[in-house]
Amino acid sequence: MANQPVIRQAGVVAVKNGQICLVTSRNGKRWVVPKGCIEPGKSAGEIALQEAWEEAGLVGLLQGEPLGSYVYEKDGFVCHVILFAMNVTSAVDSYPEAGMRQRIWLAPLIAHTRVEDPGLGDILRNSPIARAG
């Protein structure tokens, strides 16, 4: 991974009634959390909230400090993702990427078994959210 361009991303672990929201990747083959590239002039937290809306139809409040971060490779790039926990206050069925993604709600102890990315799985498994669930 050395000397590869790094893409900074932010994402959200959305929690509602003790369950975590996962969405399918764009190709529909993997379960992930809503995340996207950090845009100039926007904070990681703002991007996390934006992606929760666009990819999962969720609105909510971020919980203070990030849960953690992980790194993965995609298309020859290294992506560094900062993850925030979000308490969901509203979930709608009509949202920008509703036609491209599925959304599921799972208990924290099950959610980490559905994701393929080891870094994301570690955060889901070891976060305070998982221990609370």
Report on the architecture of this protein.
The structure is a single chain. By secondary structure, this protein is an alpha+beta fold. It has one domain: Nucleoside Triphosphate Pyrophosphohydrolase (Alpha-Beta Complex). The chain has four helices and eight strands. Strands 1, 2, 3, 4, 5, 6, 7 and 8 form an eight-stranded mixed beta sheet that branches. Helix 2 packs antiparallel against helix 3 (118-126). The protein is globular.
Q: H/E series, N to C?
A: EEEEHEEEEHHH
The residue ranges in which pLDDT falls below 50 over 5 or more consecutive positions are none
Structural class by helix and strand composition: alpha+beta
Q: Whole-Å distance between the termini? A: 34 Å
Whole-number total of structural domains: 1
Shape estimate: globular
> What's the number of helices?
4
Quick tags:
133 residues, alpha+beta, Nucleoside Triphosphate Pyrophosphohydrolase, 8-stranded mixed β-sheet, 8 strands
